[in-house]
Specification:
325 residues, Rossmann fold, globular, two-stranded parallel ribbon, single chain
């Protein structure tokens, strides 16, 4: 049995691959290693995976018809973790077509592959907390309405959920969608605030603090995300239950942006130069995950505090970029 992981060179994808390999699974990774952010970081993530004899890698665009079928030809794929996507809320305003291509067409190709695999057991795919849009009721629950997205990125993730529901209904494909809440940690994404803030504080450059710091995020450490993702993958939907399920996966503890910066300052030992800025288009004031469903069904329980997680990231950042700040 082999597990296909799309987005294997990405932040979450590479960590999921590492976890699966460490427990003895055979993993086929797929990624186009695009230039949305520095491909060298993606190649560095891949390098440690490629050293494992149970890992094979195919470089390609999942949205191209037939690419995935070719990537897994001759292998018995019974489970898929689909994490490949064009990420970023603000970038979706600049390059909307990239999101339709990767997130809509790409998701369709994964569904079509799942539909035609023999002995297929389970597809787990990445949705996003962004689907909740500007919902004011907190914490966000999977039963809340999510039909008022405020970014194209969010709209594509909601579309993925609807497509998966249809394929579950029509073709009996067992699926689980995970709404990730602000994932962070070592080897993360340079376009995320925790990365850019750390970089600028160390370099004594200003950081832009949107909405005057009056924003809250349910920051979730990468190790907790990986444990929850794999638990969902292993928790196959019951034959007599729904074919498509959706879960929030977050820390269940939103943190104010201004406090987040305070913690970074203390860890780094340098005061940030804060430049206050208004809210950005497509952004939301607060994210807050109700995780009771995934706790009940899969035993998920986040364990890493924001202080511990940021300390781990800053330590990695300094070592990776060889800065002594």
């Amino acid at each position: 049995m082999a597990i296909l992981v799309t987005g294997a060179a990405g932040f979450i994808g590479s960590n999921v691959c590492r976890h699966l390999l460490d427990r003895g699974d055979e993993v086929v990774g797929v990624d186009n290693v695009n230039s949305y952010y520095d491909p060298a970081l993606k190649e560095a993530r891949l390098s440690s995976l490629l050293a494992d004899k149970n890992f094979s890698f195919v470089r390609g665009d999942i949205a191209e018809a037939g690419m995935l079928a070719g990537a897994v030809k001759g292998r018995k794929i019974t489970r898929i973790v689909h994490l490949a996507a064009q990420a970023g809320v603000r970038y979706s305003i600049e390059e909307p077509r990239a999101y339709i291509h990767s997130n809509i067409s790409g998701h369709l190709e994964v569904l079509e592959l799942s539909r035609h695999l023999d002995h297929f057991e389970h597809l787990v795919y990445a949705s996003s907390s962004s689907v909740y849009g500007g919902n004011e009721k907190v914490p966000f629950s999977e039963t809340d309405r999510v039909d008022t997205p405020v970014s194209l990125y969010a709209a594509t993730k909601k579309a993925d959920e609807l497509m998966s529901h249809v394929y579950g209904h029509l073709f009996d494909i067992p699926q689980t969608g995970l709404r990730y809440f602000t994932v962070y940690g070592p080897f993360g994404r340079p376009d995320m605030a925790y990365w850019s803030f750390t970089k600028n504080i160390i370099e004594r450059k200003p950081i832009r603090v949107f909405n005057n710091g009056e924003m809250w995020r349910d920051f979730t450490y990468i190790d907790d995300i990986v444990k929850g993702t794999v638990a969902a993958l292993d928790g196959l939907p019951r034959a007599d239950g729904p074919r498509h399920r959706i879960y929030n996966i977050g820390n269940n503890q939103p943190e104010k942006l201004s406090r987040f910066i305070d913690i970074l300052e203390e860890i780094i030992g340098i005061k940030a130069i804060r430049e206050m800025a208004p809210m950005q288009p497509g952004d939301v004031v607060r994210t807050y995950a109700d995780i009771s469903a995934i706790q009940h069904d899969h035993g998920f329980q986040p364990t890493v505090s924001l202080e511990a997680g940021l300390k781990s990231f800053v330590g990695w950042y300094k070592a990776y970029f060889q800065t002594g700040a």
